[in-house]
Specification:
The protein is α/β, with parallel strands linked by helices and 328 residues long. Helices cover 40% and strands 13% of the residues.
Length: 328
């Protein structure tokens, strides 16, 4: 079976996914848009806001990451874990600016029980009490910790595969691909949604990109949320010299992700600041239905609020359309 018609499949082969990715661009975007419209409201783009609740000094050696303690040349101010009240106040501000989801990231290898994890639990409860979706990314996780996060009302846990199993060892040596898969299984088994995707532009091949999508699409159910990041090359990291990817590669990756995971939220994540408005809109047509909103990602600049206002003004808001429909 090779059809990418929007039916749910978990048995995609890497070859099939490469073939989709290499379709003529207009055919690929057209097919992805058709699948997108079958499963989602094409006018709705979810705004998620990101906050680094604990910055830098991470013991892992992820080659792309400015927060790794291995990359001593990076200019970054380390920060201890923020206090819950400050985080919840920022979530409230993000909500007032239009964000529906609040994502909190900590530069940890893994969660450790104790005062700091208690504080994260309080943050999750506080964000949920605002009526927002709450997502955290805290590194590896044990079952009893996932249980506490679920009880606090956590919507989703972000833990990325980052790349293909074949390319992974070139990017990270301090933990294995299997460690990631184990954490993802623990999150799932506690009823927390999975937010799991990766990065393009690190020197991987199209086959690596397809191979990562194959691993994601093999999950049953598919991850509810799939962030697609374009590498933000940061001075002082081993990948600092990598050129920014051609925006059309991001369009192809988004479209292919949409075709193999029809119902998932596909999030146009890091790297958006190097895309012009039209390239971003092409990604939204190709099946992306969420963006990170706000001036900053975790440690690097995001597309600015001003530029995003222009983007959202250009695509129009879904609310007036719904009002018109109900008034008719
Ligand atoms: N320490 C936790 C972990 O790795 O699971 C959470 C934080 S980590 C910064 C979250 C994700 O951000 C990474 O998995 C990676 O996909 C993405 N990321 C980090 N640095 C990036 C960069 N320079 N460009 C693009 N994506 C990046
Ligand atoms: C994800 O896939 N992308 C976000 C979120 N999950 C946590 C993080 C992007 C980080 C980009 C580099 C930085 O700002 O430090
Ligand atoms: Fe640490 Fe996460 Fe950065 Fe890797 S990606 S160095 S685990 S903060």
């Amino acid at each position: 079976m090779t059809a990418a018609d929007g039916t749910m499949r978990h048995d995609w082969t890497t070859e099939e996914i490469v073939a989709l990715h290499e379709l003529p661009l207009l055919e690929l975007v057209g097919r992805a848009n058709a699948v997108h419209r079958r499963h989602h409201d094409p006018n709705r783009v979810q705004k998620a806001s990101l906050l680094s609740i604990k910055t830098g000094g991470c013991p892992e050696d992820c080659a792309y990451c400015p927060q790794s303690a291995h990359h001593r040349e990076v200019e970054l101010t380390r920060d201890r874990l923020m206090d819950p009240a400050g985080v919840i106040a920022m979530a409230a501000r993000a909500k007032a600016a239009g964000a529906e989801r609040f994502c909190m990231g900590a530069a940890w290898r893994q969660v450790r029980d104790g005062r700091e994890f208690d504080a994260v639990i309080a943050m999750v409860e506080g964000v949920r009490a605002l009526g927002m979706e709450a997502c955290v990314t805290l590194g590896m996780l044990k079952p009893h910790q996932a249980e506490r996060l679920a009880a606090a009302g956590l919507t989703a846990y972000n833990h990325n595969l980052d790349t293909s199993p074949e390319f992974y060892g070139r990017i990270i040596t301090t933990r294995a691909y299997q460690d990631r898969l184990d954490t993802l299984a623990i999150v799932r088994s506690h009823g927390i949604d999975l937010c799991c995707g990766g990065i393009i532009g690190m020197g991987e091949t199209v086959r690596d990109r397809a191979s990562m999508l194959r691993v994601l699409a093999a999950m049953e159910p598919h991850p509810e949320s799939v962030p697609i990041n374009a590498l933000v090359p940061v001075e002082g990291t081993p990948l600092a010299g990598r050129p920014r990817i051609d925006p059309l590669e991001l369009v192809r990756m988004v479209a292919t992700a949409r075709l193999v995971m029809p119902a998932s939220m596909v999030r146009l994540s890091a790297g958006r600041s190097s895309l012009n408005r039209e390239a971003q809109i092409l990604c939204l047509v190709a099946g992306a239905n969420s963006v990170f909103y706000g001036d900053k990602l975790l440690t690097t600049p995001n597309a600015g609020i001003g530029e995003d206002a222009e983007l959202f003004a250009a695509i129009g808001r879904p609310e007036p359309i719904a009002e018109q429909a109900s008034a008719a």
